[in-house]
Amino acid sequence: MSNEFDFKKDCDKIAFDRGHRAKLKFNIGKYDLAVKKGKAQYSNLELAKDRAGLIKYRAVNDLEKYLVEFEAKFTTRGGKVIWAQDAKEALKEIEQIIRKFGIKRVVKSKSMVSEELELNDFLKKKSVNSVETDLGEYIVQLAGEKPYHIITPAMHKNREEIALLFNQKFGLDKEASASEITQFVRERLREEFLSADCGITGANFIVADSGAIALTENEGNAIRSLSNKGVHIVIVGIEKVLPSVDDLDLFWPLLATHGSGQELTVYNSLVYGPRQENETDGPSEMFVILLDNGRTNVLAKEEQRVALACIRCGACLNGCPVYKNIGGYTYGTTYTGPIGAVIEPHLNGIENFSHLSFASSLCGKCTEVCPVRIPLHKLLLANRREAVEAGFMPGNWNTGMKVSKTLLKKRRWLDLLSANQKNFLLKYFAAGLWGKRRELPSIAKKNFYQLWKENKLD
Ligand code: SF4
Predict the structure, then answer these.
(1) Domains, the chain, ranges and CATH?
(2) Which of 159, 363, 423, 455 is least buried, going by the fewest C-beta atoms within 10 A?
(3) What is the pLDDT of residue 65?
(4) Which range in 66-75, 413-422, 437-446 is most confidently predicted, on average pLDDT?
(5) Are the C-beta atoms of 73 and 209 separated by less than 8 Å?
(6) Considering only CA atoms, which of 309, 307, 358, 296 is closest in space to residue 331?
């Protein structure tokens, strides 16, 4: 778990790691180019974003109704719905399923919710072999790491590093190309799919009016894990519900465009439950775990609840100047970047994570790029206000604010010292606060008011 001190220390280190920044710049640069092309499919992107925001806000505001509707529909086809209040409850339910069906081998596809549960570690402790089947996730699992980014889990690695990892683990050529590595993984995963007795996926959306799980992906691994004849478990946050299957017309392309710059992701699937009598493939048993894990804390916040409209496209991470400098691991949380800074304090305790809301220049780029109109920079301010009101700010911050308030309220207080005296004080007492690698700007000899009076403003 991150705290403010570790966060600042890690930021200070990683922001000056030129290799790390170069990898981010390269990958986000490619993303930016692709997104520009993807957005060209819209004749009116702003209208699409307005509509998507409206649909999601309505769904969030009526969460209970839509979730119950989803449950009623999904269970009519033999699926089972489990409501889990927190990670502990969800893991207990998963353990019961594993025991009941004697599950030993799991194929898993990318799911940030499963990261919240630290599911792979849990399964390992229960002697269940769990293999990530999304290429990026497979790479980070192999490296013993967590996903670095919600859409691009191995964004922090370049081809050379990945080839070296496969050389160390499997003896692959150190110079292996991206397509050679992909081919190798494809063959290995085929074996895993064939021998697995359980598949675990997340869900991009769950659809209330039809009781469907909506999956959108590029590699086909999620839908492949569903074609196993064994058990399938879907773990999904309660905020992922959409009212109607018709909404996917809008949300699938919007997610693809903002997530990877595609017009539409390669594989888009709707799954309505376990295999039926007249069907030839699909799981014999299917469970959907609806996970709260702090989401109702976000829901209870009048301002911040709109953050539950997030469709996890990752656009705000890629647009954020802070993320571009410090990357994903520094946050020390499952969700990172602007959306992480907004929701993590409510998911995991404002006392532990309120500092993340201050890691923002409030430039508003996150709000601008969000496809569902979440006013992220305003929510960061709301979090800051809450942290101050709850007394989670350090003592020197509070003192600094009181002094600033007194000085800024009265011109004569500000003019009490000369520019030279102010520069002297700032240099010796405040330089550290500004950061060790930056020089404080000097205070001008004459202030605006004086220049105005002397009529010397251009
Ligand atoms: S907050 Fe908006 S931009 Fe950020 S991940 Fe969620 S949907 Fe995408």
Answers:
(1) 1-40+303-393 (1.10.1060), 62-293 (3.40.50.10420), 409-453 (no CATH)
(2) 455
(3) 98
(4) 66-75
(5) yes
(6) 358
